[in-house]
Amino acid sequence: MTEILRTKGLKKHFPGDVQALKNIDLVVERGEFLVLLGLSGSGKSTLLRCLNRLIEPTSGVVYFDQQKITDLQGAYLRKIRRKFGMIYQQFNLIGNLSVLVNVISGNLGRMSFWQSIYPLGNAELVNRAKENIARVGLTDFTRTRVKNLSGGQQQRVAIARALMQEPEVILADEPVASLDPATADSVMQYLGKLNREDGITIICSLHFLSLARKYGSRVIALKDGRLMFSGSPQEIDEAKFHDIYGEDAQEVEIR
Q: Which of 68, 134, 163, 231 is deepest in the core (most CB within 10 A)?
């Protein structure tokens, strides 16, 4: 595999002397399914957002495809961001709009002003959106308002929306944290399929080690903003699990 992302000395400080990331050195290979583990507040979400510069790092460097992207601005930054699809814990969909319109909105960065006003007027765009909706098993809900879908269905809409960008990397920030165990696994199956069949690099933050073992090709763990582990999911034994989550933590299995 070849390198797609690299960080060197990545730091992020927030007001109040909060050090969210502390000198993160990370290499991500193209086609990896990389899982981020760690307690809430360990820096997982901040790291994901620094990779595509939704959050600006305080210092350090991010490289995408061996190009330094931490200094890019304007049109150059927008072009790089199109390489990243983003999936959020709370879906970030527009509830009163249909599945189709929500998915088309994933192409907003490539649309003209008039297309953004009337997105259903572009037949090619509509057809591509329908193909992505089919990929996540929601063809029967194409015209349904998103607010009438279950949480798992909404997250699948979010995956289809991310696919509209034709991304090389998908950043998934706790995508199954608000779902029940069976639904969480079904959503992860779609991400795993995109990784295997399309070769999309997935970087996904999770709380469940069982899902990391099932879908991840590699795991990194953060603790207090520091990178404390990088390796195979199978290398995380009971002792390492407690290093990451604390002595009182208990592993929850999702099958």
A: 163
